[in-house]
Write a structure and sequence with these properties.
Length: 169
């Protein structure tokens, strides 16, 4: 629970803050709104765009079937990429690599899918819907304290994240 419940949301808050700082117009819109629907859309957008559970979801095939035109047999193993699924043009036709708090991102797979879908997803959503707007409101001058190129990302860990996020306000 500590890894699944803390590492993930902590990384999402830091990466979400960085993403918003890189999209100042959307940050400004989120800072000024108290519309819960827009806040929820922004959080879903961040979850989709960042998809921090990026280490590959492993499943075993139960019965012979076909996935994406490829036959798979019962007993074979499959590894799924959630970031690839969330940026697939079959899911979002219009420029899936673009972050936009106004676009409809519901139905994304950032929390996985099926029996093992994230147990804590509603807690995670609530944390993000509270933490990000509160941070932006309380620190109106929030900005990166180092050039973006100097931010150190952690990509070979359980959840994608940032080693540290130096900010000033
Ligand atoms: C933004 C935050 C989070 C993300 C992106 C996330 C992502 C995921 C993903 C993709 C899975 C599915 C793994 C699989 O299919 O093998 C998962 C499972 C799980 N998550 Fe989360 N999670 C987050 C927050 C949390 C929180 C806050 C908790 C608990 C407090 C939590 C507890 C769990 C547990 C227990 C499972 C395993 C469920 C099972 O195997 O049946 N997660 N999470």
């Amino acid at each position: 629970m500590l890894l699944a419940g803390h590492e993930t949301t902590a990384n999402m808050i830091a990466l979400g803050t960085l993403t918003l700082l890189r999209h100042p117009d959307q940050l400004a819109r989120l800072r000024e709104t108290d519309d819960p629907r827009l806040i929820a859309d922004a959080v879903e957008g961040l979850l989709r765009y960042l998809t921090i559970a990026d280490s590959g979801i492993v499943r075993f095939v139960q019965e012979d079937t076909t996935i994406g035109g490829q036959p798979v047999r019962a007993g074979e193993g499959l590894i799924f990429s959630l970031p690839a699924a969330n940026r697939d043009s079959a899911f979002l036709q219009d420029d899936p690599d673009r972050f936009d708090i106004h676009r409809q991102a519901r139905g994304h797979l950032a929390f996985g899918y099926g029996t093992h879908q994230c147990l804590g997803q509603n807690l995670a959503r609530t944390e993000l819907q509270i933490a990000l707007p509160t941070l932006l409101r309380r620190l109106p001058e929030l900005r990166l304290a180092v050039p973006f190129e100097d931010v150190r990302f952690r990509s070979h860990t359980l959840a994608y994240g940032i080693a540290e996020l130096p900010v000033a306000w």
